[in-house]
Write a structure and sequence with these properties.
two-stranded antiparallel sheet; nine-stranded mixed sheet; alpha/beta; globular
Length: about 400
């Protein structure tokens, strides 16, 4: 995820205080399933005692109201969550415009074709993207939105044109037989505002004062799904999404708000607001002279909630919106304290999948090592997408 210099250690939110949980345990591939005795002592349970997450399976917001016992009740709650996030934080989506897909160049590799394209997402804005096609190109192929971590290079960082090899998951996915679309987000790659540094989102807010960068990224990625569904050789019912860090954050939001995403994998991006040592990463101070990611304002409207200490949101709500579609969330034990919050959230999200009778459609895995997308993690991620996208009817 994008990092911020400021560190908040004593922020009161919903009755908890954002401090560091002083537990140091290394766990590899932690399974979220555990018995009551184990839950009372494990780090994630200790974390939630200090930073409780509200229950999801209640008919009212924030863990209030009668329990949800039927799928129809959850579907109503699901819409309530969507409306809350769109109205209070993300902002409304614009009207659709024709995609007007344009091909800008092609590179032929031995086992896949790489096309550079762009397409319209709203009036006056186009997205640069890389479209990777496996060889031979068949029919009814599964496809993946490959969403990149924070990088000035944007989508080039996941197709093998920039950054390190562990970032090149778009290229690895196409070699496994997936059609892959890797788009630039606004303020990265070819979408950096003229005369500005990468990640400077101030020009966006000058023309979109009632929207948010998170809402904009979400909308652009939903238009990316439109692109994939427009391709005759893609099976429109077998489209997945995968991302690491900022790409994980974007993947979760995309899959949460777009039911056309049939399966998703996130790594190291779904940090719970409860207990986050720096929750202002989502809504940085805008009147500063800092540069780079300090000028990237994802959800500015969240700041007033954080400052008031009353935050009626958390990211396990977004994760739960994916149910019952297959979803794998991963974290690393050296990525601050966030993996513990991820496991605590997974227990609540898992109950939503259990309501649908599909507990195997959700998994949370924790790996040894720092924030990253290492080979062992990529192997698990790719196998998840293979399982749910290649083997589906």
């Amino acid at each position: 995820m994008m990092r911020e210099k400021m560190r908040v250690s004593q922020l009161p939110i919903r009755g908890w205080r954002a401090g560091m949980l002083l537990v140091c345990v290394v766990v590899v591939c932690l399974d979220v399933k555990s018995g009551p005795a184990q839950q009372s002592a494990d780090p994630a349970s200790l974390y939630e005692k200090q930073f409780p997450l509200f229950d999801l399976l209640t008919q009212a917001d924030l863990g209030q109201g009668p329990p949800i016992t039927e799928i129809a009740q959850w579907e109503a709650k699901r819409q309530l969550i969507k409306d809350k996030w769109l109205t209070d934080l993300l902002g409304a989506f614009p009207a659709k415009v024709p995609l007007d897909i344009r091909e800008r160049g092609t590179i032929e590799y031995a086992d896949y074709t790489q096309k550079q394209i762009d397409y319209a997402t709203e009036v006056g804005d186009r997205v640069n993207a890389y479209l990777l096609l496996p060889k031979p190109l068949g029919k009814g192929l599964p496809a993946v939105m490959a969403l990149n971590p924070t990088s000035i290079h944007g989508a080039a960082s996941v197709v093998g044109l920039a950054e390190k090899e562990e970032w090149w998951y778009a290229r690895e996915l196409v070699r496994r037989g997936f059609v892959v679309l890797a788009p630039d987000i606004l303020t990265e790659g070819e979408r950096i505002y003229p005369g500005r540094e990468a990640h400077d989102s101030r020009p966006f807010y000058e023309s979109h004062g009632n929207w948010s960068m998170m809402g904009k990224m979400l909308w652009d990625h939903m238009r990316g799904v439109d692109v994939l569904q427009s391709l005759a050789f893609v099976d429109p019912k077998r489209i997945g999404a995968l991302g690491w860090s900022l790409g994980a954050h974007n993947t979760a939001f995309l899959a949460a708000f777009d039911d056309r995403v049939a399966a998703a994998v996130t790594d190291g991006g779904m940090y719970m607001i409860a207990g986050d040592s720096n929750p202002f990463r989502w809504c940085r101070q805008q009147d500063t002279s800092d540069t780079g990611v300090a000028q990237f304002f994802g959800m500015p409207k969240m700041r007033s909630y954080l400052e008031s200490g009353n935050v009626p949101f958390d990211l396990h709500e977004i994760q739960a919106l994916l149910a019952p579609r297959p979803y794998l969330d991963m974290n690393s034990v050296m990525a601050e304290d966030n993996w513990r919050g991820g496991v605590a959230a997974a227990r609540k999200v898992g109950r939503v999948y259990q309501l649908y009778g599909k507990p195997d459609h959700f998994a949370n895995r924790v790996f040894d090592g720092p924030h990253g997308f290492r080979p062992d993690m990529r192997k698990v991620a790719y196998e998840w997408l293979d399982r749910w996208l290649k083997n589906s009817p």
